[in-house]
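Dear colleague,

As promised, here are the two records you asked about, laid out in our usual form so they can be pasted straight into your sheet.

NAME FIELD: protein one
SEQUENCE, THEN STRUCTURE:
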Amino acid sequence: MELWKADLGVPLRYTQIDDSKFYFMLVKGILDHGWYQTNPNLGAPFGAQLYDFPQGADNLNFLMIKVFGLFTSNWAVVTNLFFLLTFPLTGLAAYYALRRLDVSPAPASVCSVLFSLLPYHFYRHESQLLLSAYYSVPLTCYLFVALVTGKPVFAGRTKAGRRWLAHLSGRSVATLATCVVIGSAGLYYAGFALVLLPAATIVAVVGGRGRTALASGAVVCLAVGATLAFNLAPSIVYGAEHGANTAIARTPIESEQLGLRLSNLLLPVQGDRIPGLTKVSVDYAATTSPGYCESCNEALGVVGAGGFLVLCVVGLTALVGVAGVAGAGRLTWQARLRPAALGAAVAFGIGTTGGVSALIAYFVTPDLRGWNRLSLFIAFFSFLAVGTLLDGARRRLRGRAADEVRAGRPTDSASRRLAIGWAAVLIVVLGIGATEETSNFYLVSYSAAAREYDSDQAFGRLIEARLPRGSSVLELPYVPFPEGYHVAGVPTTSTTSFGTSYELLRPYLSTTGLDFSFAAVKGRPADWESALSAKPLNLAVAGAAAAGFSGIYVDPRGYGTDAPRVAQWLRQLLGVAPLVSSLDNAWFVDLRPYAAALDKSASPGAIAALRRATLDPLEATCGPGAAELELTNPGRAPARASFSATLQNGLPGRLPVLITFPGGATERRTVSSSRTTTLQRRLLVPPGTSTVTFQAAATPTVAAGPAVNLVISDSTLTAAAFAPFRSFRTIHGRTPPQTGLVAPSCAVQYEATVPPL
């Protein structure tokens, strides 16, 4: 990692292309407000409510962050220290588990170091900070092996007559503490544990371990599940009170896209240091998974891959009964590795693309989509195999030393040769493994991170100097939170790729005491800004002023080539030139002079109506049916509004369409494939939810079967309260730019047929 080049006061990773700023937000929220779930400085003016995120499963990690916060309030320092702590934490947990599984200290030390240095760790880095803290994985693997082999995880009664307290021996307390750690150190790792541990219990019972195995497994699973449920209780209660948030729901297909692949486990590390292997995985990833390839970073490394192949051999020989033929004495090391081979096989069978994970995603829950992360469990079982083989190598070296003593050589000489040989084996394994796993492919540019971070911090101080504490800032362009437009369905382009990141958290991370509009969770009423995304910029600015915002922060990269036009319109509307960051990647404009002029030009009633229309917006979204738009009016009375959308035939030819509006009014349009048709209408939108439906009135001559025909895009529903402000400070004769990125398109599907041949 070349940490001597880094500054711990600057995030080790500070880029646009990943999720690092999301985790910085969580850390800063904990330091500023005590915990992560609510943040009054985000999602202005209502504040961000993050209960829809099941991050409570990371409460142990958050507690560590909280402890670091006792010594410094600098979120960058705390983030860096926590990330660096994940390496020794993971190593110590692996060492503990290996020792409990009877691996001797020296091999356990080597394997635990290699486990903590997996490419997975460097790939996750601070961009997925909490996934880097995978210290609970070895604990789960230890419990898996212990349950399968019948190794006692709970002690029997220690004191007669004390009821259940009599069972609380040191071993029982340690096991329960292990379960609490597993259930508090990451949703994915706890979720995987609740799949692997029941499997281990079933194997133990079927294998004849009896009621003790069943009871032990049941208690372990119950302890992990109860801890996880306790940690997730705030999110569960919030969901029960406010309903499920379908806008952030996962889909089963994501489990297939992020599944585990055998090739990625065994191929070299990306950018491998070994000559000839440097480009193998890079080229493989570019060929098989162009673009984003999370599973391409799950390599076990050369030592781990060797251990995995040994486990494969052990599993195959157990299946064909070789152990029974060759004799138990010669293959005791195989017997020791069978539980690890079983664990690796179960993890792979669950996580592989098209495996059990696909069934879990379809029939149980799609929320655990990143099943490739089960590679960590396979990695630990593989290093358990390596540790066991190293112990075997040590026994053979001891045997040779004993032979030398029996042959008449001095005991001291034989012992010295044994020590040198044993040390050489360990050094070679550790040296090769660590060198090959820690590829330069994962190095980050600390100078680039410092340049962007310093620019943002300096720009944040400029904004703080302009605005009084407690002021609210509107952020543009609108980007849904979380995950931008990535899940919503907008095609990825140079502009919308901005929408998959968390760049609008930058002003929050670089200021204190100011509130920002970004990070209101999509799908909840607090996400009022989503209704502005398809509205012209002049209306968005007027609405923000009426809603009490004091400034506007713009990331021009979100507008792509349209950024100069946005800058021109902001100058015209606000009458002042924006502040520009040193890297020209952020603008700020004071909104207060504009708000004062707006107040003078309109009545208090009109301003109040504009505020209500802005913060409780009417919205037009894709309906649950393929042939409808859903109109939402959060008020208690019908609202007058103007509706607009563009229509286009997705197939060659012309398509007659019948459109039905709320109240029963209809309109007929003929939609072409060569150009778009603009649909505009004034509506009286009833309270609650209503629909605009589309019905294809003809069938084009295309191939038989389902076909996407009518494409509906740029749908907007603008309350009449915006109308008086359309011409305020606008550039006459010029169309203002759109506030944000386009909403996802809706497509009407119907059965297309052709005449018989």
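NAME FIELD: protein two
SEQUENCE, THEN STRUCTURE:
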Amino acid sequence: MFIQHVNFLLKILIIILPALGCEYLLAQTTDRSAIDSMTHLLGRRKEDTNKVKLMIQLSSAYRFVDNESGILYGKNALQLATSLGWKKGMADALLQLANNYTVRSEYPLALADFYKALEIYNQIGKKAGSAEAYRSIAYVYRDQGDYNKALEFLLKAFRLAAESGDKVVIARSYEPMGSIYKHMGNYAKALEYYFKGLQEIEEAGITNETSILYGDVGEVYILENDGPNAMRYEQKALDVAVKSGEIYAHAWALLDLGKSCMILATDTVHPPGYTGRKINLQNAVRYLEQALVLAKQMQSFRTMRICYENLAQAYRLNGDYKKALENSDIFRAILDSVFSRENSDRIARMEYNRKQYADSLRVVDARKSADLKLQQQKNYTYLGVAGILLLSVFSFFIIRERGKSEKLLLNILPREVADELKSKGVTKARHYDNVTVIFTDFINFTKAGERMSPQELIDELHACFKAFDEIAGNYGIEKIKTIGDAWLAVCGLPKSDSEHAEKVVKAAMEMTAFMQNRQSQLGDKTFSIRIGIHSGSVVAGIVGVKKFAYDIWGDAVNTAARMEQNSEAAKVNISQTTYDLVKDKFTCIYRGEIEAKNKGALKMYYVAGQSLT
């Protein structure tokens, strides 16, 4: 264990030490004279609210260039605001202090201060401040991979920002909303939010912040293997970042340019003698190395982690396997640091276990009292009886908790996969030839968010997905995951089912009927649904080691998604393959060949109902 800790510390030193020689970048990426000017003014300020404001500005200015100073000024601002009894200054200082912790990937500390700031903003009725706190909290949950929680807080940010008329917070909230959908694989909605964000930022007059959004658009094209469009938007991102002097945006623009170059080098069939691949790979390494220098200067472990990950890939494509391995090792060291079990546990305890913590204190107090009484009485017989009783209680709780764990595991994984994981500790991905995949999506989800409170929106989403899960369970359909307001499931795995297509279509018809009935009862307080179905083969297995999930991959999943995207409200759209399997059971309406994104023209059918024959 000691050797492992030493190796880890050596890796972290490899990451941090080069950053100490990067001071020359400070002058290139931030207005040092402005920082010096504020520092000079600070020495002449009285201990009043203006000094608090100045220290908060310094905390913000140092955020990406000297994290230690940013944290120090944030703490000093908080201390002075507290002594003055100025609550807004306390909240503003906490917010900026948490922003600095976020750059360092110290998420539990950041989350704690964001929540403190939110509580104060709510107390003093500063809706704009509360909206910014909600937005910042959403960033933490997004970076930790908890996208549903991030979505919940972003919806709260949107609502409060709209109530307060704060166009800046509204404009800034579109980027994390888009990034959540990007991480969930819904690229169309991600682009929708990104382009809306660009428009809102223009109207809010903060055009120097467009760099991140241009970079996000480029990254979606990277994920879709569209190298030319990716390069176009990443270059826009770099131009704006260099002009504005934003080091964070500058680093990410270079990082995404490096990714784009790798795509251009690998996704095209080139003629003999073509040298562009080598040039693109060289450019990829150059851009990624430049991004890494800036990431080290910011001490942003998240940015460094992604730089090292992509550098490992770039060097591997270049055939330099030694450097590829070196960068991969450092990437994994940072990954273990940023996404550590300790971070996850601390956040979980902070968010969910307050009541349990209080209960545990009472249990400890009770146990101490019992021990003291036993010592005073020196009654060994009573001690033995108490020990037996205590053991019985512990046994009861262990059995109960084991049952809860079993139930939770079966909510995440199919029983066969869960049994394999418990017995062997690992599971293997498997290929399934005959399955049917179903995608559902709510058409007016974004507009519904404008009509409903965040809690109403989440409650309605939960009610609908709960009904879908129950319908799926009735037909032996395996629910895979929710992706924002989309729902994905499959039939025919892990156990094969000869009626997989028929069962999925029946379930889809029930879901449609459920939503139509709900609309007749709730009106615009619920959603319109569209459904897409395709049959084919998939690969299924567990991904990740932290917050692992059972997932499916393959062309059948992509085609089902295209069926959903080309469906209409209250319609079930199926592919030719699915139609061939269910045509004797259902009446279907042929729609012709319809152009689907990245798939070409596909034959599609609407399911009209069950066949009477």
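A couple of things worth noting about protein two: Residues 380-412 form the longest helix (33 residues). The beta strands are 430-442, 478-483, 486-491, 529-543, 549-553, 572-575, 586-596, 600-610.

Best,
R.
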